[in-house]
Design brief:
By secondary structure, the chain is α+β, with helices and mostly antiparallel strands. Helices cover 62% and strands 15% of the residues. The N and C termini lie far apart (55 Å).
Length: 193
């Protein structure tokens, strides 16, 4: 079974051991992975990993933007990590590793991850109010908010902050009301007997 958390921890550890910036490493890994995923066919195995590493290093040498960063510990860690993922046939899990690495990086910085689901699009003002409220309530240094529209919520919103869920959706309120009505009917039925 693949554990993205273990891979993300190993990636972050390799960046730190080489003296690189975690965010730079995550950005580099994401950019490299995007390029690899755009290749036709499936890329995996030892020989593919060796060929891929050669292609990546040639591409870095040719790129004016990356040429000056070739000695970057974060870029080097990203290249090696991507090659390892190809070698271990784990490239299909790159997105979950990147997500977990961002989460771990934010956690180290004291930044809380907030997943916001709403029935419709929210204005930037409302998102900012929610973000500020989360920061004040949790005492975090900051918050990263990812939002998603979920029409099935009918109205309102649902927040997931770390391992806590705040459900202020109309759907949740209707379910609670329905449950209350069902239990009231059961009580009436018992009372009438």
């Amino acid at each position: 079974m693949f554990h993205s958390g273990h891979w993300a921890e190993a990636f972050i550890s390799s960046i730190e051991k080489q003296g690189g910036e975690i965010e730079d490493g995550i950005d580099a890994l994401g950019a490299l992975a995007t390029g690899i995923k755009s290749l036709p066919g499936i890329v995996f195995g030892f020989s593919a990993a060796e060929q891929l590493e050669k292609l990546i290093r040639e591409g870095i040498a040719k790129s004016a933007d990356l040429r000056e960063n070739t000695s970057s510990p974060a870029l080097e860690a990203a290249v090696r990590f991507l090659v390892l993922m190809v070698r271990k046939n784990a490239l299909c899990h790159i997105e979950s590793v990147l997500d977990k690495a961002r989460y771990l990086m934010n956690k180290k910085r004291g930044i809380v991850s907030v997943y916001l689901e709403s029935a419709g699009p929210l204005t930037e003002d409302i998102e900012a109010i929610i973000k500020d409220a989360v920061v004040k309530r949790t005492g975090a240094a900051g918050a990263v908010v990812r939002s998603q529209i979920k029409p099935e919520l009918i109205g309102g919103y649902r927040l997931r902050i770390e391992d806590k869920i705040i459900d202020a959706s109309v759907r949740f309120q209707l379910r609670k009301l329905f449950g209350t009505l069902q239990s009231d009917q059961a009580l009436v039925a018992v009372w009438e007997k």
